[in-house]
C-alpha cells in the first residue's frame, strides 16, 4: 500500500510579535507571534531546508513536486533549484504546482495516487504569506515549509482513502503580479466550506469503513481560521483530537500548513492510529492515513515539529524590518553599486558547487578544497580530484568580522571563516544570528539562501548559521 515514507518541516527562526503590528498601526491584534522568513529566504530556499530534513537517511526520490502560492519565479520551474540544492540525480524529474493553497493537497494526492512499481515522489510544500499592513493575512499568516515522501515501501502511514468536494467561489484571489491577496468576508466562505468539508470527510471515512469516532488525530487546514473551526465543529468530534493549528506561535503557513500539521500528527501518532486530514480551499479534500509499526523508530532521532513552534531560542524581528524584508517598505540603500545580475552559463557549469555545495578532494593527499579546484593546493597534483559534498557537514568558526559598511537587508553583515569537520576551509556570510553572540569556536552548519536579486534573477548560494538555529528554530 502507498503512503508517507518520510517527512520533514522547516520553520524560520525569526518571529514577529503581533503586538508590534498593533503598536505601529494603532489597530487591535491578537496575541502570539508569526514565523517570518529571513530577508535571504524565499519559498524555494524554505523548501530546500524542509526537503533536506526529510531525506536524512532516505534514498533519493524518483520525482520531486513543489507546491506554493508564492513562487520565486514564474514561467520557470522553481523545483529545479530545489533539485540542484539537494544534489539529486538528473534522472529525477522536478515539477511545480503553484498558484493557490489547494496546490498542496493536489500535489500530495497526485503523488500518493502515482505510487506504482515502487516509484517514489517527494512533495515539497512551501509558502511566504504577505498581506496588506494591518490586515489579517499579515498578522495571522506565517512562513514555513514541509516535505513529504510518498512511496510503496518503508511506509510510515498507509494512505487509506481520499475524497473531494469542489465548488467555484470567489473568497480569496490575487491577480497575476499582485503582491497581496484579497479576501471576501469570512462568513461567506464559512457558509460554503463547512458542508463541503463534512461531505469530503464523510465520504473518505465511508470508503475506508471507518467511523469518524475511531479517528485518533484530525487535522483541519485552510486559509481562513473561522471556516476551519466551524468545519471541525461540524464534524462532530471531540475537540481534544483536533490537532492544534500552531496559529498562535507560527501562524498559518498557507500551502505548507497541510504538511506542517500532518507532520505534527505523525509526531504524535501511535501504530494503527487513524489520521484524517481535511483541507479547505476552493472546495474541500479529505485524506485518511493509518500509522504503521515503522513510525516510532523513524521518529527516534528527529526533533518534533512542536520544537520549531516554541518561542525560546527565536530571533525577534521588528515591524519596520519585517516590512523591509517583504518589499513593502523602501528604505535608503547603501552608497554602493547595485550587485550585477548572475549569468546563466557559469551558474549552469558550476551547478554542483553553486547549488549542491560540492567541493573537491585530492585523491593523492586527501586535501579538501572549497570551491572545487583542478590542482591541489597542498601537493600540486593536477586533475586527481573527486567530488566532496559539504552541505551536510558541520564546521567551526575560525575567525569572523562584523561589517557595518557592506550592503545587507539585516545589517551589520557577519562574515566568517569556517573549518569543516574532516578538512576544508571556507569564507562565507553567517545568517540567522544575533551579532552580539558570535564567538570563535562556535559550531555552524550550512543553509541554502538567496544572496540577492538583481534584474529579476535570484542569486542562490549557501551561508552558515549557528547549529542552535537548526535545533531550536527548525526541525
TrEMBL record:
Q: Where is the composition biased (Basic and acidic residues)?
A: 330-339
Disordered: annotated span: 330-350
| Domain Beta-ketoacyl-[acyl-carrier-protein] synthase III C-terminal positions | 205-284
Gene3D superfamilies found in the cross-reference section: 3.40.47.10
Its keywords, alphabetically, are: Transferase
Tell me yes or no: is Transferase among this UniProt entry's keywords. Answer: yes
Q: Name one GO molecular function term.
A: acyltransferase activity
Checking Pfam families in the record gives: ACP_syn_III_C (PF08541), OB_ChsH2_C (PF01796)
Instruction: List the InterPro entries hit by this protein, alphabetically.
Output: ACP_syn_III_C (IPR013747), ChsH2_C (IPR002878), NA-bd_OB-fold (IPR012340), Thioester_dehydratase-like (IPR052513), Thiolase-like (IPR016039)
Domain (ChsH2 C-terminal OB-fold) ranges: 394-449
Write down what this protein is called. Answer: 3-hydroxy-3-methylglutaryl CoA synthase
